[in-house]
Amino acid sequence: MEIEIATIGGYEEVGRQMTAVRAGDDIVIFDMGLNLSQVLIHDNVETEKMHSLDLIDMGAIPDDRVMSDLEGDVQAIVPTHGHLDHIGAISKLAHRYDAPIVASPFTLELVKGQIEGEQKFGVDNDLVEMESGETMQIGEECELEFVHVTHSIIDAINPVLHTPEGSVVYGLDKRIDHDPVLEDPIDMERFREIGREGEGVLCYIEDCTNAGRKGRTPSESVARRHLKDAMQSMEDYDGGIVATTFSSHVSRVSSLVEFAKDIGREPILLGRSMEQYSGTAERMGRVNFPDDLGMFGHRKSVDRAFKRVMNEGKENFLPIVTGHQGEPRAMLTRMGRGETPYDIENGDKVIFSARVIPEPTNEGQRYQSEQLLRMQGARIYDDIHVSGHLREEGHYEMMQALQPQHIIPAHQDMKGFAPYVSLAESQGYKVGRDLHVTSNGNTIQLVE
Ligand SMILES: [Zn+2]
User: Fold this and answer.
1) Percent share of the chain, pLDDT over 90
2) Which of 61, 136, 182, 336 is the most buried (most CB within 10 A)?
3) What long-range pairs does 282-286 form, CB within 8 A, spacing at least 24?
4) Confidence check: pLDDT of 212 > 70
5) How is residue 69 annotated by DSSP?
6) Domain end (from 381, 400, 426)
């Protein structure tokens, strides 16, 4: 059976991930993501109303025109998890394919939200829920399986396409976490089995984000302990404390909520995306928030909540807000500019349970936001966080578990691939033979 991979997006950047695997006449698409930095760089771009080709030209969504080079039928579109760089282009591209969108429950809910917000295209692909551990028949001879992985959002999976020539493992976005918060540890046992069974692993497509960092990525429980310690150190402070993190990182938000209660403060979630992700997780029963937890997304209700905080005393509350990257329109940035009823005073504390995404736009915006807060006397608690991506030893462990015949580095640019390429070469792989360093818009024929 012919096996061919199309590297459509996310092979020159972190963002707009999209890869297609053709096995004989059947094609499965993994991820359809957005490159958010290409959107944010333009002021006031509303992607909801934009046409796909304009977004492709902006570099915001994958240029899927290479799909016409693949001879076969798309059988499934499979987003691996709910981050926008993996699902953000579904509303712009999925309607071009006559195939269902297959995803884990939480991811599928977020995809629904994306489709509902779309104003240009009517996306009416079937939505199929599949849990990790489950499989789906693809064509006559292939099978799609979801393996549970741990990442900075719940319900992440690595999809595996089992073909008669061996398995294709799409390994994007995970860390090996044996002690996560809110969900099960990564299913390494299953990866080891997949490496050994049948024809073994034909190809492993891997996320190289942190390949240049030594050692292994700590568990989410490490970030949780760090956060607990930092917040307990603030227990006696009788002024304002504000926290921010990735809205989509429901495990982290739930730790913040819990520790707020521990230090005698009422947590409140503020900001549109904070309300969206946490609200979705709560409705699905994926997180156990206190019954009286306030979540406010709309400007007016947010301002009302802030007024209540100011009236009843800042020392009684922990606002958990958007804006960890200094995004100009996010809540923390607005607080820094004095645009909300919340007054930041000398000695007040701001917890960034996040790391600045190392990208010039983010770094600049975050610097500005932090300076605005410091000018009002805020104390900054930075980087109370662990990454959701594998480091060098995690990558080594995955190679050992899967023993893939071919490897395709992804989720980075050429510079970002380099440390991963060194690691793979040290394990006997060779660029141009079985280690395929590539860019967007290419096809790689693995079996002819
Ligand atoms: Zn991700």
Assistant:
1) 91
2) 61
3) 284/105, 284/106, 284/109, 286/106, 286/154, 286/155, 286/182, 286/250
4) yes
5) G
6) 381
Please compute Rg for the chain using Cα positions: 22
Same domain, yes or no: 90 and 11:
yes
Mean of pLDDT values over 311-320: 98
Nearest to 157 by CA among 181, 126, 184: 184
Query: Is 178 labelled a binding residue?
Result: no
Q: How far apart are CA 44 and CA 29, in angstroms?
A: 31
Would you say 33 and 85 are in contact if contact means Cβ atoms under 8 Å apart? yes
DSSP secondary structure letters along 293-349? -EEE-SHHHHHHHHHHHHHH-GGGEEEEES-TT--TTSHHHHHHTT-SSPPP-TT-E
In the chain, the largest separation of any two C-alpha atoms, in whole Å, equals 71
Helices (H) and strands (E) in the chain, counts: 14, 19
CA 284 to CA 125: how far, in whole Å? 22
Question: Ligand 1 centre from 137 Cα, in Å?
Answer: 26
Same domain, residue pair 104 and 176:
yes
* 439 Cα to the center of ligand 1, angstroms: 20
User: Which candidate, 155, 160, 217, 133, places its Cα nearest to that of 390?
Assistant: 217
Based on the domain organization, do 321 and 299 belong to the same domain?
Answer: yes
pLDDT (tens digit per residue) in 405-419: 999 999 999 999 999
Residue 340 has pLDDT above 90, yes or no: yes
Residue 62 sits in a domain of what CATH number?
3.60.15.10
Does residue 33 share a domain with residue 129?
Answer: yes
Q: Which residues pair with 27 in a beta bridge?
A: 22, 74
Place of tokens 């390949």: 211
Distance from the CA of 397 to the center of ligand 1, in angstroms? 20
DSSP, residue by residue, 104-158? -HHHHHHHHHHHHH-SS------EEE--TT-EEEETTTEEEEEEE-B-SSTT-EE
Does residue 389 have a known ligand-binding role? yes
Query: In degrees rounded to 5, what are phi and psi of residue 270?
Result: -130, 135
- Contacting residues for 234 by C-beta, under 8 A, at least 6 apart: 241, 263, 349
Residues with Cβ within 8 Å of 15's Cβ and at least 6 positions away in sequence, in order, are: 33, 34, 35, 36, 37, 38, 85
What lies within 8 Å, CB to CB, of 251 at 6+ separation is: 152, 154, 180, 181, 182, 183, 220, 224
Residues of the domain holding 195: 3-216+389-447
User: Is 266 found in the same domain as 330?
Assistant: yes
Q: Is 387 annotated as a binding residue?
A: yes
Domain tally, the chain:
2
Cα–ligand 1 centroid distance for 333 (angstroms): 24
What is the structure's pLDDT at 226?
Answer: 98
The answer to whether 73 is a known ligand-binding residue is no
